Amino acid sequence: MIRVVLPFHLRNLAHVDGEVELDLAAPVTIAAVLAALEARHPVLRGTIREHGTLKRRPFVRYFACKEDLSLESPETPLPAEVVSGQEPFLIVGAMAGG
């Protein structure tokens, strides 16, 4: 069971309290997690990834096991700790300004 932590505004949009749990078959990749998340909560389509290209939207970051996976290929397998449910996959809204 994959545990996904969403930022507050996306939890509100999807009407989710706490973590989202997803059951995925191997291989568990960034793209597979995002596709399953969008399938379960269609309202999130276009908020994390662009509609047409499925590229990560600006100011959205992915983390697993304290590692920033934002610039990794979407086909990057997630760490065993995330796949086993020991650690969550985090989707974080980045901050900008000055």
Describe this structure in words.
The protein is built from three helices and five strands, in the order E-H-E-H-E-E-H-E. With 98 residues, it is of the alpha+beta class. The radius of gyration is 13 Å and the shape is globular. The protein starts with a strand and ends in a 5-residue tail after the last strand.
CATH class division? Alpha Beta
Oligomer: single chain
Instruction: Please mark out the parts with pLDDT under 50 across 5 or more consecutive residues, or reply none.
Output: none
Treating each run of at least 4 consecutive H or I residues as one helix, how many helices?
A: 3
Overall number of structural domains? 1
The CATH superfamily name is Beta-grasp domain
Main sheet properties: 5 strands, mixed
Strand order of the largest sheet: 2-1-5-3-4
Q: Could you state the order of secondary-structure elements as H and E?
A: EHEHEEHE
By secondary-structure content and strand pairing, the structural class works out as alpha+beta
Termini separation (Å)? 39 Å
Number of strands: 5
Q: What is the fold named in CATH at topology level?
A: Ubiquitin-like (UB roll)
What fraction, in percent, of the residue positions are helical? 10-25%
Q: Mean pLDDT score, rounded?
A: 95
